[in-house]
Amino acid sequence: MGAIQNTQIVLAERPVGDIDLKKTFRTDKTSLSTELGPNEILVKVLFISLDPAMRGWMRDVRSYIRPVRINEVMRSADVAQVIKSNNSDYKVGELVRATAGWQEYAVLQPSDDLVKIKAFPGVSPSTYLGVLGLTGLTAYFGLYEVGEIVKKGGPNCTVVVSGAAGATGSVAAQIAKHVFGCRVIGIAGSQDKCDYLVNELGLDVGLNYKSKTFFKELSAATPKLIDIFFDNTGGDILDGCLRRIAFQGRIIVCGAISTYNSVEPKGPAYYSALITQRARMEGFIVFDYAKQYAKATEDMSNWIKEGKLKSRETVVQGIENAPVALVKLFNGDNTGKMLVKVADEDSKSRL
Amino acid sequence: MGAIQNTQIVLAERPVGDIDLKKTFRTDKTSLSTELGPNEILVKVLFISLDPAMRGWMRDVRSYIRPVRINEVMRSADVAQVIKSNNSDYKVGELVRATAGWQEYAVLQPSDDLVKIKAFPGVSPSTYLGVLGLTGLTAYFGLYEVGEIVKKGGPNCTVVVSGAAGATGSVAAQIAKHVFGCRVIGIAGSQDKCDYLVNELGLDVGLNYKSKTFFKELSAATPKLIDIFFDNTGGDILDGCLRRIAFQGRIIVCGAISTYNSVEPKGPAYYSALITQRARMEGFIVFDYAKQYAKATEDMSNWIKEGKLKSRETVVQGIENAPVALVKLFNGDNTGKMLVKVADEDSKSRL
C-alpha cells in the first residue's frame, strides 16, 4: 500500500553533561511504509512519557538496557492508537502502551512492550504513562520490594520521599501516607510544590530543598529519624537523609536525577551511616517485577477510585518539543508526570 | 587492701582529621585500688586489640556506641588475666576478653563485655582478639547475614575483599574461598601483602590498590563481575568495585578505613550502579548477632583445625606504644590483626 509522512526525533550525539538542544537531538521528516508484516500494527502516537532514566539510555555504558544508538529514534514509552492492524489481538481504534519512541507513527510488534489499555471512565489514556504506567509501578515496587513497607509501615514509621512532586515520588508518598498510614515528609524544589504535597496530596510535611535552612528543617521534621527514604534525586538530599537514617533504615535508590547530567557526580559522603545504623541502600528496576504488574495495577486503580491516589500532569504540546520537555524535566519544571502530547485520540475509530 | 600503680592512656582531645601523636592521647600514671566490690575482678591486661572502628569512637557524633569521653581511658577490647577475684565465675589465673581499654590493669564487672576464654592447645590467647574474637565474628556475620553467601556462594560466585590482608578481611576472604569455594580476589596495599594473600591464604588473585593499573587489573580479575564485595576501606576501591558490581550484587559495608581520618570524606560517586544492577549496599555491627556468637566461634575453631583459616598478627610491644600502633593501623602497616602486647601471661597462676 502506500506510505505516510512521519516526524521522528533521533539521538544525534551523546551529550557530555547537560543536554544541548542544538546538538543532542535531530528532527527528521521521514516516510513510513504502511505495509505490515505478520502480527504487526501501525499506530499513531498520542502521548510520550518523559522519564529521568532517559538520560542514562543516552550514555554508552553497560546498563540494564542497551544505549540508544546514534541516529536511532529516541526511546520512550508512549500511549498510541491502532490505525492499521495485522494482529487480531489489536483492533483499529484501540489504545496501546508501547516503547514506540519520539515519533508520530510507528509500526510495532508485540516485542515492543506492547500492552493493550483497558481505559476506565474518567481516566485519561495518559494515566497509563503515569500512575497506571511504569511510573506508578516503580513507586509501588520500590516501596513493597525494596523499602519493606509491608513490614515497617504504620504510624510509627517515618517515610521521606525526594522528588515528591514528581511522577514517581508523588505516588510513593501517597501510598506510604494513605495506604500504610506512615508519617510522610515530601521534598520538592519550590514552595508551590510543597503546598501541593501537603494541601492536595495530604502529606504531613513538605520541605523545599532550595531553602537555606533545609537541613535544619529536615532534622526538625524527622524527630524519630527516617525509617524509609525513597530517593529520586541523590546529591545533597541523599546525604542529608543518610545523616537522619534510623536503625535498620531502608534507602530505596530509585533514581538520582540531580546527578544524571554530571560528568563527575558526587557520591553520598555520609554513607558510613549504613554501618552505624545497620541500614541498607538498594536499587531496583521495575521491569524485574513484570509478573506482578497486574496485581499492582489493580491495587493502584482501586486507590485512585477511593481517592487515595491523586495525580497531576505537566503536558507539553507537539512532538517537536520533546527535547525541550526533557530539559524541563531535569530542571524540575514539572509537577507530576511530564508528558508530550503528540496527537488527539481519534474517537470515531475507537469502536 | 592496697593499691597498684597503673599506666593508662586517655583521650586528651578529639582529632580533626589525622590522629596527632602529640595531642590526641595522654599517658597517665595512676593508682588503682585493689579493693573489689561485689562480682568484680581485677585483671592484668595482656593484649590490646586495635581496630579501625576506634576512630569513630573518638568522634562526638551519634553512633552505635557512645563516644569515648575526653580524659577517659581509650576504649578497646583486651585479653587479660584475672589476678584477684570477687566473682566465683572467674578464678585467679584464668583468661578473659573484655572491654578493658588502654591500661595495664583494670577492675571489671560482667557488664564490661566479660567473656571467659577457653584456650585450646596451640592457639595464642591473642587469637581471641583476632580470628576467634569480634574481628573474626565480624567477617563471619558480614558474609552470612549481609552478603548472603549461603545463597550466592560457590564456584560461580566472585567475591572481592578490600583490606584483605587485614584482620577482618583475611578471615572473610578465606571463608569465601575455603568454606564456600568462591573465586576470591583480595585487595591490599603492597606486593608483599598480595603475595601473602595468594601464596599463604590461597586466594585466587591479590591486587595492589597502589598499582597504577589497579582498576584495569580489577576488571581483568572479575570477568564475570562481582557478586559479593566485602568492603573494609571505602574510597576509590569502593567506586571501582561499584563499576564491576554484578546483577543483584551485595556490598557488605564493614568499614571505610580510608575515610575515617577525613574531615570531608568522598562518597561513592558510582553508587547509581545500585540501580542498574539491582544491587545492595548494607552495613552491620557485629554486636547485633551476639546470640549466634557461640555457633560462629565453633565453626571458626573447626576451620582453624582443618587448616582453612590461617592468621597473622602484627604485634607492637608496650602499652605506651598503643597510639603509635593505632596510627600504623591507619597507615596499613599491619598484616593480619594489629595488637599491642602489654604483659606476659603469668603461667604459674593459670592453674
From TrEMBL, chains A, B:
GO terms for molecular function: oxidoreductase activity, acting on the CH-CH group of donors, NAD or NADP as acceptor. Gene3D superfamilies: Medium-chain alcohol dehydrogenases, catalytic domain, NAD(P)-binding Rossmann-like Domain. Residues 17-340 form the Enoyl reductase (ER) domain. Keywords: Oxidoreductase. This is Enoyl reductase (ER) domain-containing protein.
